[in-house]
Amino acid sequence: MFELADIRERLSSHKPTFIVPGEATRQAAVAIVLREHQGHPQALFIQRAIKAGDPWSGHMAFPGGHRDPDDAGLKEAAMRETLEETGLDLGSARWLGALNHERAQPRGRVLDMLIAPHIFEIDGDPRFTPNHEVADVVWAPLSRMARNELHDTEKRPVLGNMTVFNGYRLAGGHFVWGLTYRILKSFFTTLDPTWVGPPEI
What CATH class has 4-150? Predict the structure, then answer.
């Protein structure tokens, strides 16, 4: 399910939906970095470092961040942030395409902020040099997530109450939820419009 050759083909004809930013809209981008490992696709995740005041502190995420004024576009922002956060240079990677823009909704608050996911394919087993923003770097099996084999739930505090969140449980106990989980589901639906997500609680 979702082998790299299929992913390349399906993304080549995908026409993503972009949010038109307003003057005050904050813009960010993430890189969904794929590779083939033992005949199956893997996706790259980072664990963000704990940082006071950061709504995504400690979360599992795709590498990425805010667009800088010097970035030529959102794809370039994703590439720059990936290099800064992990040491992975996507300059020689294959860009496979973009997904629909997402809105940031930390803790249920909808922000005037868009996130642009861009998909890249690399070869081999790169060495990572995470910066101070990254606590861990993890490869995860894409097809097992798409088959919902790694679906799990976790309780997290929201506005003083413990709330159950759906997501994917990766090696080492890492839990992918929230915005990154939404992007993954959008990715799987883009690859296969008939894809059915896990039964969510």
Answer: alpha beta
